Amino acid sequence: MSFGVIITALLALLLLGYFIGRKRSITLSKERSQKLHSLPQYYGYLIAFWSSVPALLILLFWAALESSFIISAIVTQLPMHLQQLSTDEIGLFINEIINLSNSGLIAEDEVKRQAVSRYNELTEFSTSIKSAIVFILAFVGMFVALSFVKPEMKARNLVERLIRWAMIGCASIAVLTTIGIIFSVIFESIIFFKTVNVFDFLFGTHWSPQEAIREDQIGGSGSFGALPLFVGTLLISFIALVIAVPLGLMSAIYLSEYSSPSFRSFAKPILEMLAGIPTVVYGFFAALTVAPFIRDLGESFNLSLSSESALAAGIVMGVMIIPFVSSLSDDVISAVPQSMRDGSYAMGATKSETIKQVIIPAALPGIVSGVLLAASRAIGETMIVVMAAGLSANLTFNPLEAVTTVTVQMVTLLTGDQEFDSAKTLAAFALGLGLFLTTLVLNIISLYIVRKYREQYE
Amino acid sequence: MTGNTTEIIKLKLAKRYAKEKRFKLYGISAIAVSIAFLLSLLINISVTGLPAFQQTYINIEVDIDSKLLKLDSQYSEQELFRANYSKVIKQSLKTMFPGVKGRKQKRALRQLVSKSAIYQLRDFVIDNPSVINTRQSLWFLARDDVDVFMKGGIDRSLPESDRRLKDFQLVWVDKLLAENRLEKRFNVSFFTESDSREPEQAGIKGAMIGSLLTMLVTMLLSFPIGVSAAIYLEEFAPKNNKWVDLIEININNLAAVPSIVFGLLGLAVFIGLFGVPRSVPLIGGLVLTLMTLPTIIITSRAALKAVPPSIREAALGLGASRVQTTFHHVVPAAMPGILTGTIIGMAQALGETAPLLMIGMVAFIADVPQGITDPSTVLPVQIYLWSDSPERAFTERTSAAIMVLLGFLIVMNFLAVIMRKKFEKKW
After folding, report:
1. Are A350 and B265 within 8 A, CB to CB?
2. Residue A352: which of B20, B274, B384 has the nearest Cβ?
3. For residue B248, which phi and psi values (nearest 5 degrees)?
4. Which of B117, B146, B292, B358 could form a disulfide with B142 if both were Cys (CB 3.0 to 4.6 A apart)?
């Protein structure tokens, strides 16, 4: 039975369970002329839950693990010389088997034919066992739950407890996601750091993972000195901040202190549109329009610019993060108590003097945290740099040259066709770990500052 | 003494006022610069993208000769399907331009029409077998170079070696133009075809369906999960509980984690551990769900918080349980805000590219995906792929695809604004 059929059947059981449960509670209360503790639909919900949800969970769990079990079962049955192949060669072999099985073609090779038939057997076996378990569980759940239905049963409380646990489960997905991220980057990074020294990775100045494509190549280990990537990332992010901080901050000051409400309600959404434009659009714009423009501009001053200069990517990224600086700054500037402004005006200060000497210092923690958030955005930004920055790792602080970034390298390392366990893909996870930790620290500092600051004026 | 101070202040006053004016000017120019950048981006994309909504067609007198097709007087359907249509088109072009000599020129002549002409002719003949051995005047897609020329993308004054169309090709094109055999029409195939290596045949249908399926998965998962999480945290979570604090810290953090990291998670956990196939809308939807959850949770919580406590107290006072109060009164009242947040989250997910690159949605896929487990690509990734293509004609298609994507985003955001304005209650 296919996955879709089982799901549909379970949904049908869910509905059926609801009506049976409801009906049963009403009949029982009439038979025993006893008042029901809860409204009849709560009994229905309860039966519906037990007759489908546990079965559904088992089904999903089974489906998630099924393929890896079947594959390992096939691999252990293979002849020895095949089992000793590397992981990716086995992976290719398994893929071939699965394709053969799906297409219904008959393999020429005896080993493959056996593997295909074994694969088919196992899949069929697994499917029948799975359907059997799921439906037994569903019906047992339904009947056991039905046998518990009594008029004095506190169905509503039970249903509410279930709802509450379901909600806790949903909320906990956030924690699970973080754990998932940490584990997925850490495990691969540990494997990576077994072959590449941590210090060589962090402080090495030579990055050329391309050499590691073929294992039998001379110097095949590649070199993974990530310092040029870190410098490139910092350089582009710095350019972005140089653009975004003054523009964002001045916009926020103008909007919150000077502008009329009507101008504000017009300009603020437009500024926020900058954050809503997909980054791939910015990347295209940077590569197609801004970079050639800057190159031509540079040429007119007799500067030789790379068409993938850090400057172009940085400027476009800076525009993208303007809203991150401006909206948070706007919030904190508005949160500065009016009494502080009034005090300053009473001393005879002009508006700009008040802003520069009273409001900005008072709002500084909030502004700093906005800048930090924007910086973390810039460091983690991918598409703009993938499309507009270079690929060659260049250790330079010159914004007119092409540099590459951590995210660019992650994309180039992982979008090719290569085996999952090669040093190249592992390096991408190590870079991901670095990226995650950096942005995490920036976010935590920024959130901490915001929280501290809020307490100050509350 | 007092008079002296006043004097000093008065002297400085003009300077201070000037400073004040300058400061205000900085503010307004910062806004102006930002808006100018936005406008130049939008205008630039529109100017490059608009031509892509038109496509050049070429009119050819086709001799549908059964000899050239290599068909006998009796033919089966399969023979008709496999007949040599390319030869027919080649021959028809030769008759239209007699005197074309040399391999290079002959090849160039064939390349006036798109490769799709062969299939178009085939379908035409199969639908109307009576046209065999007649002469038909048919319109075919022109090759991308001709199309670029028609849209003014090729400058005649350039030296021949710098042009995609050589002098002899320009002569042909001029002849076709003089005979009214070249025409620009609305580019339907841009919306009805999928990706192709040939720019003139490439369309966004596959990517749009892929995006739709991915968004469907994302929506079906992130809406219930996000809203339940928000309801729990806002209405039920005990205060000063370690687990609840941990959840809140995590949500705030995840909102600022770079999207590419979610791609790594998808690659390592969903593909590596659970064996979800690569490149399919299912995995894309799973990854985007995790990415949009924080947005949905945070906005839904704000919407729930805006429902005044009096509503809850009234319901509780009438004997409703807390779950009943929440689901019968608080959540319906907060629904407009929750839906607004969801739409904004979806818009974010629709424009997201980086994590999808990590999970293999960058493959070249010329088929329209039929379900959530078919390999597919999405609109932003299609944009990325096209922007990498060297052909000139892909540039305008990239911009056109961007316009379509921005169109969807504008509609979604507009919907969100309307919802907020129309249904949000002011308590």
Report:
1. no
2. B20
3. -65, -45
4. B146
pTM of the model: 0.89
Cα–Cα distance for residue pair B209/A1, rounded to 1 Å: 28
Domains with residue ranges and CATH for chain A: 3-153 (no CATH), 223-456 (1.10.3720.10)
Identity of residue B3: G
- Please tell me if residue A179 touches chain B, with a CB cutoff of 8 Å: no
CA dihedral A428, A433, A436, A438 (to 10 degrees): -110
Q: Which of residues 261-300 of B touch A (CB under 8 A)?
A: 261-265, 267-269, 272, 274-275, 290, 293-294, 297
Q: Report how many helices (DSSP H) and strands (DSSP E) chain A contains, helices first.
A: 18, 2
Kindly determine whether residue A174 and residue B45, on different chains, have CB atoms separated by under 8 Å: no
Q: Please, what sign has the CA dihedral across residues A366, A368, A371, A376?
A: negative
* Predicted complex ipTM: 0.90
Mutation to test the A interface, candidates B8, B19, B232, most A Cβ within 10 Å: B232
Listed by number, the residues of chain B in 202-241 with a beta carbon closer than 8 Å to a beta carbon of chain A are: 224-226, 228-229, 231-233, 236-237
Give the minimum alpha-carbon distance from A350 to chain B in angstroms, rounded to a whole number: 7
Per DSSP, what are the bridge partners of residue B63?
B135
Domain range B205-423, CATH class: mainly alpha
Strand extents, DSSP E, B110-163: 135-141
Which stretch of B9-23, B140-154, B276-290 has the lowest confidence by average pLDDT?
A: B140-154
Nearest CB to B258: which of A180, A267, A435? A435
Q: What is the mean pLDDT of each run of 10 residues along chain A (458 residues)?
A: 83 92 90 87 91 90 81 78 72 77 74 82 87 91 89 89 93 92 90 86 81 50 82 94 96 93 90 91 93 89 81 94 92 90 93 93 90 93 90 83 90 73 82 92 87 69
A to B CB pairs, distance under 8 Å: 265
Angle between helices A310-335 and A227-253 (to 10 degrees): 40
Residue B407 sits at the chain A interface (C-beta within 8 Å): no
Of the candidates A180, A267, A278, the beta carbon closest to that of B405 is on A278
Interface residue A352 vs chain B (CB under 8 A): yes
DSSP state of B59: E
Q: Is the dihedral of CA A122, A128, A134, A136 positive or negative?
A: negative
Residue extents of the structural domains in chain B: 2-50, 54-196, 205-423
Give the contacts of B259 (CB within 8 A, at least 6 positions apart).
A380, A382, B291, B352, B354, B355
Q: Which residue has the tokens 């200069």?
A: A309
By CB atoms closer than 10 A (0-12, 13-18, 19+), residue B241 is: exposed
Cβ atoms within 10 Å of B364's Cβ, excluding its own:
9
